[in-house]
Amino acid sequence: MAAKSTAQKKKENHPRKDRMKEQPILAPADFTKPKTLGKFGSIMWDKIVPQLQDLGISSDLDYFSLEGLCHWYDVYKRLNEAYELEPDLSSMTANRLLGNIQRSWNEYRRLATQFGLTAISRNNISMTPASDELADFLKDNLG
Fold first, then answer.
1. Residue 73: in which H helix or E strand, if any?
2. What is the arithmetic mean of pLDDT over 129-139?
3. Which residue has the higher pLDDT, 58 or 36?
4. How far apart are CA 37 and CA 32, in angstroms?
5. DSSP reduced 3-state for 100
6. Which residue did the predictor score with more confidence, 121 or 27?
7. Cβ within 8 Å of residue 41, ≥6 positions away
């Protein structure tokens, strides 16, 4: 069984408060989609950025990393399309495309891990929205 995330421990009212990592309270991000994203990157931005904001995972500091994440996803998808159109899969062009597909996927995965977009990395990220922490603070201090 994998270790529980801080958000899970808080939700379950974990008795060992000393085992919970202190998470910084980040200002909620207000991102505008970069105009430089391609078709696939733009679709990905529209799908994941609102969810990351709702979960309280992203802040203004993450803008360029999220842009890179969506960019590499776009590159990966476009290279896959080009590979599918390649008539001779044993050609030098197909070989180069495969190498570039692998590099773009590796860059995407590296960034995806930072935002908890893989099953393993998701457990290590606190998914407590900043607004919930503010509500808890007000409840504890103002009654």
1. helix 63-85
2. 56
3. 36
4. 12
5. helix
6. 121
7. 70, 71, 73, 74
